[in-house]
Amino acid sequence: MMTQIDSEILVGVGNLSDIDFDALIELNSFGERDIQEDKHIKVCSLCSEGEYCEEYELLFEMEESVRIFSDGQIIYDGELKLDEDTISIKVNFNSFTYQVLKSPKIEDHGLCSPCYPSQADLDAKGNFKTYALPNDFKRK
Ligand SMILES: [Zn+2]
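Above: the input record for the complex with zinc ion. Below: its predicted structure, written as tokens.
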């Protein structure tokens, strides 16, 4: 049985059909390819010289199945870092789910299992503090 630390707020997981994509695309977005591009440019001598780089070209062929939408700054430095007090929503297009990583809207929900361990299901009742989808991004 998992116990919850008082100050801990869980990531809320929901079904993509909840989301108003017209509202979501107004936010900054950040994909797995962007992360890899950042990492590559930091270490590549060709890219830093502005020369043709085959590895960089290959990054553009990566599938974009995961994107994070946020109104704040997302920094990649070995791990993803999100500003506090932002809205940050990770969209998993392949599994048709979204994860609310940060949100000013907090609700009580039950745990999500088994796909997203230690995260909460936004459709389940429970008493875990959970980041929920702000109303502005809910499909009407
Ligand atoms: Zn390069």
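Notes for the reader.
The helical segments are 21-24, 32-43, 45-48, 54-59.
The beta strands are 12-15, 28-31, 66-70, 74-76, 80-82, 88-92, 97-102, 106-111, 120-121, 128-131.
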